[in-house]
Amino acid sequence: MVNANEWLNKKIPTDQREQATSLYVYRKCQCTEQKNLTSLFKTTQPSGLFGGTTAASPFSGFGYGSQKIQPPEPLTTTAASPCRSFSVAVVKPTTGNNYNDCQHCSNRDQTNYSNYRFYNVILEGELDLNDFINLNVLCIEGIGQEQQQKLTSCKPNLRSINFIGNKRLIFCDNVLKNQIERLTNLILTTKNVSFIDLKIETKKVKEENLKCQLDIIKSNLNEDNKLWLDSLLEAQHEVLHSNSTYARKQLERCKNKLSEVLTVEEIRDILGNTVEINEMEAQLNKVTSVEINEMEAQLNKLTLKN
Prior knowledge:
By secondary structure, the chain is an alpha/beta fold. The chain has seven helices and eight strands, in the order E-H-E-H-E-E-E-E-E-E-H-H-H-H-H. It folds into two domains: about 1-45 and about 55-155, no CATH class; about 175-305, no CATH class.
């Protein structure tokens, strides 16, 4: 694991970054992947029921075999940036077993200054891409719990990056820093921090994160599906507050429609976050009501004494 900016400074000189249009960073050597696959295909079944015959490839029908290795095909989404847009990629696994060329995997010097590919890399910390003014594609791959990239932030602020094998990571640096500062100031500078104060601040953080999440999702939807997403949130609000039959039916209708463009996990995550915020709001309202009643009771006592 290496510091992202230190690694970048060693690999791509500052005077070459303006020429770069794409940057691919892979956690594992693709050639190693293909060697492992080929070894798997040659495995034979033990004697007995299958008579020691060669095992059928579990990957049959998916393009593995004698095909040459092709560069990963990115599924791109546009990420908003204050000055330009990036196509942030989710790469498909490479196919084929032609793994003789290890130029990238052995970390030799890059000869194409517009298209950079690096292998066997795990990055951590901040990745500063401000010098890459013509960068169109950023693809970062990491598969498995122990192989995930450990980036904490990215400059300029890419709204969304998908890592292979990782859940979607949201880079909203200013939002995150502001949240940390607010919580730190609340705890360190306020003499008597109450449970309600912390609850209120936590609710604000969750609301900000949900808004950021929705902005990212909407950036990849057409206008019609954006309206369906708004309808989903409205129906969820009605279900939480009135639980009417009509609201529940409308919620299911919106979920079914959005399942054409969003995953089940994405829809569940959105609804789960709205439920959490609603529960916190209910708790705060309850606590506030109790405090108001206590204050009124104390005022009544003082009035009676006087």
